[in-house]
């Protein structure tokens, strides 16, 4: 073999069966091959396992899918290039023209856009309610056929808690699928409830370092099978190297989540007692309106603390500009603490009543608590609150 050919066909290195890598390799390849055409055709007919084209599946991304499914307590999983991609591909894969979705004001802005605008262009209708309106949900579901009930818990950004048992029961009684964006709660929570489909942003707690994007859709086997072809054709595939980085991040997932939750509780208690704060939104506080429900449903209360500045809109700029340890940037779940301001969260398409329901005021601040020392975080927040003059 001439050298020009050899560089494109390097010598193979094969490990013995009893000699394994402790960390699985990154299969950074688009294509796979079988020894014969007959075996290739068997694979294409679904008669044998294997891999062929990474847009459909890849050993590295598959390992991540199997791990996430087990963590969430479900059969199977599909990973995507971003959390928004997981939501979009799920909505596209599970709906068709004429279908109806029940969704909620207290929902991630891109999710509302996808349901109301994108799917709306293709003839999918929706009813937008408050997550607190269980009677309204029951009324809508009894009045018209519904394909999906799509919700979050805790909600983004003011951490309302959905009654998961009630919502799933109402959805199933009406023949609808329940879809839960479980990003805030994490993979170790809510798996005991009868949720049909979980969606997650892997960019957040799974990665933990804020340097890689990804999404996941987790469900029972038959739902994943029904979605797999659509996901492959839509093409929002997670890159194997990104999958490897997320797998690496998941090794410290429980340690990080529990540490960040403990710090979040400390921060919430500090803010709850500060005169510059009008209200704290954290389900771990006894004063949270759904604290009892959160206690029944959750093992950990989460890493997000939202609160309303007593000084309102006028206090936002001096507060944020005085912070030293909180980065003013979107996302959550990373090792650094982050802060988001009202104009970065408010749904501009919502009417006045819907804005009220959302719980986001002109002075609402969302914090994502990182891995810094909790005392340093509360000191930083205290200095920033002093700067508001409240």
Commentary on this structure:
There is one protein chain. The protein has 14 helices and twelve strands. The mean pLDDT is 96. With 390 residues, the protein is an alpha/beta fold. It folds into two domains: 214 residues, Type I PLP-dependent aspartate aminotransferase-like (Major domain) (Aspartate Aminotransferase, domain 2, 3-Layer(aba) Sandwich); 135 residues, Alpha-Beta Complex (Aspartate Aminotransferase, domain 1), CATH 3.90.1150.10. The chain has a seven-stranded mixed beta sheet with strand order 1-7-6-5-4-2-3, with helices on both faces. Helix 3 runs parallel beside helix 9 and helix 12 packs across helix 14. The radius of gyration is 23 Å and the shape is globular.
Summarize the structure.
The protein is an alpha/beta fold. The protein has 14 helices and 12 strands. The longest helix is centred in the last third of the chain and has 20 residues, at 253-272.
Largest sheet: 7 strands, mixed
Number of strands: 12
Class of secondary structure makeup: alpha/beta
**Average pLDDT for all residues:** 96
The CATH topology label of the largest domain is Aspartate Aminotransferase, domain 2
The percent range for strand residues is 5-15%
What percent of residues adopt helix (DSSP H or I)? 25-40%
Number of domains: 2
Ends apart, CA distance between termini? 78 Å
Write the element-wise H/E pattern from the N-terminal end onward. Answer: HHHEHEHEHEHEEEHHHEHEHEEHEH
Please tell me what the overall shape is. globular
Known CATH architecture of the largest domain: 3-Layer(aba) Sandwich
The CATH superfamily of the largest domain turns out to be Type I PLP-dependent aspartate aminotransferase-like (Major domain)
Computed Rg: 23 Å
Main sheet: strand order: 1-7-6-5-4-2-3
């Amino acid at each position: 073999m001439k050298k020009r050919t050899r560089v494109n066909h390097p010598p193979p290195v094969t490990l013995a069966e009893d000699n394994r890598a402790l960390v699985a390799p990154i299969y950074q390849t688009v294509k796979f091959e079988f020894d014969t055409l007959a075996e290739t055709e068997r694979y294409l007919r679904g008669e044998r396992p294997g891999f062929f084209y990474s847009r459909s599946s890849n050993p590295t991304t598959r390992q991540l899918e199997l791990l996430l499914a087990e963590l969430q307590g479900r059969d199977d999983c599909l990973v995507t290039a971003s959390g928004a991609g997981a939501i979009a591909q799920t909505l596209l894969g599970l709906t068709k023209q004429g279908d109806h979705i029940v969704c909620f004001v207290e929902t991630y802005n891109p999710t509302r856009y996808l349901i109301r605008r994108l799917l709306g262009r293709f003839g999918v209708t929706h009813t937008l309610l408050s997550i607190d309106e269980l009677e309204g949900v029951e009324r809508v579901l009894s009045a018209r056929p519904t394909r999906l009930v799509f919700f979050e818990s805790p909600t983004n950004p003011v951490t309302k808690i959905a009654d998961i048992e009630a919502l799933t029961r109402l959805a199933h009684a009406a023949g609808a699928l329940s879809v839960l964006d479980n990003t805030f709660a994490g993979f170790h929570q809510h798996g005991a409830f009868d949720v049909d489909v979980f969606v997650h942003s892997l960019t957040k707690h799974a990665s933990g370092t804020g340097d890689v994007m990804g999404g996941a859709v987790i469900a029972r086997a038959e739902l994943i099978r029904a979605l797999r072809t659509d996901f492959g054709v839509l093409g929002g595939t997670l890159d194997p190297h990104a999958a490897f980085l997320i797998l690496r991040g998941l090794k410290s997932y429980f340690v990080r989540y529990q540490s960040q939750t403990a710090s979040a509780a400390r921060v919430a208690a500090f803010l709850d007692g500060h005169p510059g704060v009008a209200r704290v939104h954290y389900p771990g506080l006894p004063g949270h309106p759904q604290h009892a429900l959160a206690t029944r449903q959750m093992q950990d209360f989460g890493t997000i603390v939202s609160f309303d500045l007593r000084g309102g809109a006028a206090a936002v700029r001096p507060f944020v500009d005085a912070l030293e340890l909180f980065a003013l940037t979107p996302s959550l779940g990373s090792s650094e603490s982050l802060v988001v301001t009202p104009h970065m969260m408010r749904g501009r398409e919502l009417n006045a009543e819907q804005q009220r329901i959302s719980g986001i005021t002109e002075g609402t601040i969302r914090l994502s608590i990182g891995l810094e020392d909790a005392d340093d975080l509360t000191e930083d927040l205290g200095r920033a609150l002093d700067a508001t003059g409240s």
